[in-house]
Every structure is written in structure tokens, then in C-alpha cells.
């Protein structure tokens, strides 16, 4: 994404495009009044985030998956990325839900669901607290205090974000000729630190150019990111499930919970075909009646 955006911005003339906006209490209140209209998107994104957080997969894949599904199912999907509020509600709701849900396997099983949860797990072990089922019995005051701090953190985060929005927006005033090298260096550092291998930096550049070409051809990059992030985990889980069931695919529909999740996944996969077929049937219905 970083390399692709740099190339696109260079093509557009080395400048950021945007409209001046003011943040005040009235603007925030007017935005909040619109949020109840997107309750279905919020609920769907929340479920996706919880699922991806418990899996564990992380907040980033949850954001991309929620954004992609919302864009498919929304009547205003063509306006996503152009200021449509629903396009912001979907990924942000999923990211927050995934970040919180990632703490569930960490507290109950001792398995961190995200890098942040892994850091918290290390802190608990340093203080002599062993995450697991017994933690809810032996240290229930700590557990419920931690859960309460999550709600408090949401309110504090809201105040901090509203206060710092003008500072974040001021970054756009920095010339792109300064920001672009910084972004490029951060991308290279992030790619190199995964395996401490320069080959990863080369692959970053290759996929950056590929992302630029995909954007120019109007191909969505979210499915590619999901495949890269979750592909190995999905293959490993699929292999383990088949080994446990001796090669039977019926294990994916062995009970109501698993069957429901698989059904929802298949519906999301084939939703474009379903929606197009439904639209064609709806358009032919009046002609048939006449």
C-alpha cells in the first residue's frame, strides 16, 4: 500500500488533495446523529471483528474484510473512499472489536490474539499472573478490573482523538517530497524486521509496484492483503481439520456453530453473484406480471 500510494501521488503531481474542514462540537454531534443509520453495518463489522480477533487474525485483516463486505453490500459502495461515512464505520468498528476480542484467548487460554495482547501476556507473566481459566477464579478482581479499564479506555481515547485531530491533519501540510522518503524508509524497516532478510525488502518493492498497477486497473487490493496475511493460517487450520477428521469435509458442518460460520462465509463469498441474480429477477418481475 505504501509504495503504491507513493507512486500514485507522484503521478498526480506530488501533492495531497483534500478539502479544508473544521472540527467543532457541532460537526461531531451532526456526525453522531448519522451513525444510527448504519446500525446494520456496525453490527456486521462488530461480529467480523470479534471473529477475527478470537481466531486470532488481528485488527488489520478484520478491517479489510469488513470494508470489502460493506462495499459489496452497501447501496453506496461506489462512494467508498470518497467521503462516505459507511466506508469509515465498517473498518473502524471491526478494528476496535478485533483488538478487544484478541484479549479473550489471551486471558482464557494464554494464547495472544494480537501483538498487543502478546505484550500484555508478557507483562502478566512478569507480575506472576498466569493467564488461563484459573485466572478468572484466583485473580477475578484483576480480570474484571482489566475489563472495566477497556470501557474507560474508549472514553479516554475519544477525548484524545478529538483533541489531536487538528495535529494529525497538519501532517498533510508537510511537502510530499519530505513525507515520501519517510514512508519508504518505514515500509523498508517493517519488511526487513520480519525475518531480517533483504529479500523481503525486494519483495516489498515488487508488490508495491503490483499494487500500483492494480489501483490503476481498478482492482481491489483488500482480497490480496487478506490472502497474504491469512493464507498460511487458513491452510494450516484446514490441514489440521482434515487430519482430525481423517479427510472428511463434513467436519466443517459438524455442529451448529461451525455450520453457521461456514454458511456465512460461503454467503459472503458468493454475495456478488447472489445480489446480481436477485437484481435480474427483480427487473424481470414487472414484465412477467404484464
TrEMBL record:
<feature type="transmembrane region" description="Helical">
    <location>
        <begin position="176"/>
        <end position="195"/>
    </location>
</feature>
<dbReference type="InterPro" id="IPR002823">
    <property type="entry name" value="DUF112_TM"/>
</dbReference>
<keyword id="KW-1133">Transmembrane helix</keyword>
<keyword id="KW-0812">Transmembrane</keyword>
<keyword id="KW-0472">Membrane</keyword>
<feature type="transmembrane region" description="Helical">
    <location>
        <begin position="109"/>
        <end position="130"/>
    </location>
</feature>
<protein>
    <submittedName>
        <fullName>Tripartite tricarboxylate transporter permease</fullName>
    </submittedName>
</protein>
<feature type="domain" description="DUF112">
    <location>
        <begin position="1"/>
        <end position="226"/>
    </location>
</feature>
<feature type="transmembrane region" description="Helical">
    <location>
        <begin position="142"/>
        <end position="169"/>
    </location>
</feature>
<feature type="transmembrane region" description="Helical">
    <location>
        <begin position="48"/>
        <end position="70"/>
    </location>
</feature>
<feature type="transmembrane region" description="Helical">
    <location>
        <begin position="252"/>
        <end position="274"/>
    </location>
</feature>
<dbReference type="Pfam" id="PF01970">
    <property type="entry name" value="TctA"/>
</dbReference>
Amino acid at each position: 500500500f505504501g509504495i503504491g500510494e507513493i507512486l500514485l501521488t507522484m503521478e498526480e503531481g506530488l501533492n495531497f488533495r483534500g478539502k479544508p474542514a473544521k472540527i467543532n462540537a457541532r460537526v461531531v454531534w451532526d456526525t453522531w446523529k448519522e451513525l444510527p443509520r448504519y446500525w446494520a453495518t456496525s453490527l456486521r463489522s462488530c461480529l467480523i471483528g470479534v471473529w477475527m480477533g478470537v481466531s486470532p487474525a488481528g485488527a488489520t485483516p478484520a478491517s479489510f474484510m469488513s470494508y470489502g463486505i460493506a462495499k459489496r453490500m452497501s447501496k453506496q459502495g461506489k462512494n467508498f473512499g470518497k467521503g462516505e461515512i459507511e466506508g469509515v464505520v465498517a473498518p473502524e468498528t471491526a478494528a476496535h472489536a478485533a483488538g478487544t476480542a484478541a484479549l479473550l484467548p489471551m486471558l482464557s487460554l494464554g494464547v495472544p490474539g494480537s501483538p498487543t495482547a502478546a505484550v500484555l501476556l508478557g507483562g502478566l507473566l512478569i507480575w506472576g499472573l498466569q493467564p488461563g481459566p484459573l485466572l478468572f477464579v484466583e485473580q477475578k478482581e484483576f480480570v474484571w478490573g482489566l475489563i472495566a479499564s477497556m470501557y474507560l479506555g474508549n472514553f479516554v481515547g475519544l477525548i484524545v482523538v478529538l483533541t489531536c485531530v487538528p495535529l494529525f491533519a497538519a501532517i498533510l501540510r508537510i511537502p510530499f517530497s519530505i513525507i515520501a522518503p519517510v514512508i519508504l524508509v518505514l515500509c523498508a524497516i517493517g519488511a526487513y524486521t520480519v525475518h531480517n532478510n533483504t529479500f523481503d525488502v525486494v519483495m516489498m518493492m515488487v508488490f508495491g509496484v503490483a499494487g500500483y498497477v492494480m489501483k490503476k486497473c481498478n482492482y481491489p487490493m483488500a482480497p490480496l492483503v487478506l490472502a497474504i496475511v491469512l493464507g498460511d493460517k487458513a491452510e494450516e487450520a484446514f490441514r489440521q481439520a482434515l487430519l482430525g477428521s481423517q479427510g472428511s469435509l463434513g467436519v466443517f458442518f459438524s455442529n451448529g456453530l461451525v455450520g453457521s460460520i461456514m454458511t456465512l462465509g460461503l454467503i459472503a463469498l458468493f454475495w456478488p453473484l447472489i445480489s446480481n441474480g436477485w437484481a435480474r429477477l427483480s427487473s424481470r418481475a414487472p414484465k412477467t406480471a404484464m
